[in-house]
Amino acid sequence: MNIIGRKIQDCNWLDLCSGTGIMSCEALQRGARRVVALDHNKKTANVCKKNLLTIAESQKENIYVEVFCREVISFLKKGCKESKGDQTQSTRFDLVYLDPPYESDIYLSVLKLLLDGNWLKNDSIVICEHSSSIELKKPSPWIEKDRRKYGNSALLLVSPPLSRHADTDSMQQQIVRG
Fold first, then answer.
1. What are the structural domains of the chain?
2. Average pLDDT of the chain?
3. pLDDT tens digit string along 40-49?
4. Confidence (pTM)
5. In 3D, which of 86, 84, 88, 85 has the Cα closest to residue 118?
């Protein structure tokens, strides 16, 4: 959490493979305004929901919390539902925490679906927790922000490519003028 620091304040946080929601609870305590968490295990998802609601109720500000009992790949394939008008950016996520079982092989699929499904803002950070016994490589076109090892765990922090939400008409005009 110290790595992402102030970015947590007022953020939209997506917790994939949330387990009991400990990282989302900490995000709420550090000022996240919206937390969406999902875990495929029904009992674990229920524990996560209880934990998040307990933390949310202790906060002074209005906080949005939603927990889904779903498998992460099928959930992300549906894409991020955008609001109309000025609220479009608020439905996307500033921070995504991905912590699947270490033996799973879903990192690249999840990162692709986050881009394809329009889940992220331009300056989003995706935090991938994985086993320190493997080197999780940054896939193209993602931008590596940081990499850390902590005993058996490691983190890879990546951001989406800078041009993914660019206005294509403006880009064409720039090319024609250039």
1. 5-177 (3.40.50.150)
2. 85
3. 999 999 999 9
4. 0.85
5. 88
